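Exercise (ungraded).
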Amino acid sequence: MAQRAAQARPTRLRIAVPADFDLARDACSYGYFLLDPYDWDPSSSTFSAALALEDGAAYIALRQSRVGMHLTGSCDRSLSRREVAQARSMIARILRLDESVDDIAEFHAVDDRWRFSGRGRLMRSATLFEDMAKTITSCNVQWPGTIDMNAALCARVGSESPSGRFAFPTPEQLARKKATWLRSRCRVGYRDQRLVDLAKLFHKGEIDVEWLEDLDTPDDEVRRFLLELPGIGPYAAHNIMQLMGRYGFLPLDTESVRHGKQVLRFDGTDREVLKLVSEHYERFGVGQGGQAFRSYWLDLWMSYETSRGPAHTWDKRTTGRTFTASKLKPAAPRPRSRRSS
DNA sequence: GGTAGACCTGGACGC
DNA sequence: GCGTCCAGGTCTACC
């Protein structure tokens, strides 16, 4: 009996991190930290996630006492040894714990503007499938729409943890749904069939995740493969590539145009501004081994923090919903036609 | 190769 | 409060 009670005790985790890892800075570094099944509690500096593990969903809350110190994780149920390994691997993926101090230093050697703050790790999802699905839900829709789609996908398709939190659907769970059902229940619109088709490809094993995530696989081959997938165009392919740790490609979208005009102060048609933005970040390296994306993204992220305060103070239910084109419009734009230096 | 229009939803705006 | 317009990236048809 005593043994059974001990087995049922919620699991606690201790997770080692790189010496420069800062949970508040590194978890709140990419928009996905505002999307279900993730959450950041600014008042307690706790990052949490509901993860789809072997025996069902589990909710894990992570805290860090100081920079470089290990993370402590509290689960809402007992995990098997295999699930503990699975959870550790997912948390490492989400927080990019595989990127060492030296890896970040390599980025700072290319763009030393971020050396002092130590920025460089960008939060992502627990799985490549989730990163792809989230990217599709961010296309052709304003940010609050993306938040709602992900919340609905988790709540209506994902598994529920003992404390009532929902994990992101697995490919198998999503592949079982009819496109029309997904459209009406999760408000994903025309993305319905694309999401189901993508889930089926993952579930049937027709996507070689290991090959895609192996950084020895050439970027060009990965890019070509991604563009063949349902719902993945140039923007989505480049975004998925940065989520894989391939930082030499820019996912250019209307936010890039806004950034180019508002922050970099470029002038011209949208197409001309995109070209200037692209050229502006070339100095940080494009293509295989390049760092252009991280420089671009951190610039964009800093502009959000300038208007909304530090990301670790944002609440996903309030501040997190304010990132719409109209709310990010400049008060008084002062365009200029030359490249900034 | 380049361009136009449809896809769908929610927010903004005008009345 | 209601109706209309617009933003957003991908996909397809067409030139």
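Further reading is listed at the end of the chapter. For now, observe: Strands of chain A lie at 12-15, 38-41, 46-53, 56-64, 71-75. The first helix of chain A runs from residue 2 to 8.
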